[in-house]
Amino acid sequence: MGPILDNEQNEELKVGSPTNFILLGLSSLSESYETVKEAFGAVFQQVNDLYGTSITVKVQSVEVILTIRIKCGGDLKAVCMMMGHAGASSKMMCPICETTKPLMKSWDTWKQTPYRSDYVTGEKNISRPPLMPNLKSTDICVPIVHVLTGLTKKGMIVLEKKLMGEALDWDDEKEEELREASRLLKYSTDGLKSIRDFKSKVIEVSNLLINQSKNPKVLSNQACSKYCLYDELSHDTTLDWDQSPCSYCSKANHVLCTHNWDAELLSTINTDGFICIDCSGTTIDDLIGKDRQCIENLEEQENEFMELAMHYDGEWKLLSTHESRTTSRLVEELKQMRIASGVYPRYYYDDLVGADARRLTMPENAARLWGLVEDEQVRNFGISLFGTLYELFNLLTTEFQSAEQKVQFGYLVERMQQLWATINPTETVPLKMHALTHLREMMSREGHAGREIETIEHVHRCLNILWPKYASVTPLSHRLFIIVSRFNSRNSLSL
């Protein structure tokens, strides 16, 4: 609970001063309507009864009657509980205005929806009686630091998703390169094996012809069937060499067919039939010379395929051992950057607080964090998004009273929405952005108390110091007494 009075001459009474917060209750129960009502129902009732009452004070010896105004704030879940709202998943998800889910999809429609006129149980997704029924929707204060912190957290989530998405795309690309390298390696090794097998057959047949030249005898059909390459080259398994004599002399001498390496000659043979060595006018010396030339060509191809096989083998080994960006190394790198930005783990709270969000959105930290993203457009939009958040944080450290500051706040909110829609187009308008619009309207109407960041940080620092020490070793009543007494004493803690 915050102070009521505002005295510009006395810092102790200034609205929003960190030292003027009064702790009315503390609970570690589950955050639900039933438990909050059971634990703090009496407190809510007492505060509710103060609404609209008056007090008399003296100002320069003149009695002045002041009407007590109650302002209620908290995160979305807390506000929903206090006002009896069904929650953000309901049809009319906002506890402040009457916007609906279809309207939430458009920035231009839901920002014009009216405030709730009442909180009647059973109507407009008010499922339970409000804990403070006297409050109106215009009395609800959006916790700006909480909202900006939430947007920073969502920005970090988007950053992590973008990084992981790029890493997965990178991995898919590398996986495709690895598959292609494997395919080329198999192609080169298989080709090398085929050439070597073919070369050995040519050498074997050539040696047969050399022996034939020394002892000129016509090869038998059986010998031709053993060494004949015609069937292998033409892939024609229907030919029966014993029944395929020469088209001219009807001899079954297939020596010539062992040298029909080129497709043109094969096509001629397929068309005109087999021509024996005697009828073709080809000498054995001619065939031996052709064999030598063929072997030389095969050796050149063998060397080429050997070089290809060595190249693709090295490429495959390099790709298969390259470290992926989706390993724990990427997560650790992002974690170390958070720590370098000043964000450390806490005893009681493992999430961002206002000070963390402000540090993360600082220009130098935003540039380092979003600098991990390879996509230049996404990287620039991310840096601009965090830059806008940082400007909002800086604006909130002022008193926020001038018309220029209110206009600037509205401009920053609009720019935030545009950047968010660009960097995260698959998500509808965030409810936190919705809250910023209500805050903009409220500030335009009433101004801003100022210094909320320092207040919230003070609360978090106090809890961070006190909670680990007293949470488990003292009874609740004594624990509350200690925390309250230290919370309200400036000299108890060195902050």
What does it look like?
Among the domains are: about 30-140, no CATH class; about 170-320, no CATH class. The protein is about 60% helix and about 5% strand. It contains 18 helices and 4 strands. It has helices at about 35-50, 75-80, 100-105, 105-110, 145-215, 220-225, 230-235, 265-270, 275-280, 285-320, 330-340, 355-360, 365-370, 375-395, 405-425, 430-445, 450-470, 475-485; strands at about 55-60, 60-65, 70-75, 140. The strands form 2 sheets. The chain has a two-stranded antiparallel sheet with strand order 1-2. The protein has a two-stranded parallel ribbon with strand order 3-4. It is rod-shaped, with a radius of gyration of 42 Å. Residues about 1-20, about 215-245, about 250-270, about 445-485 and about 485-495 have low confidence and may be disordered.
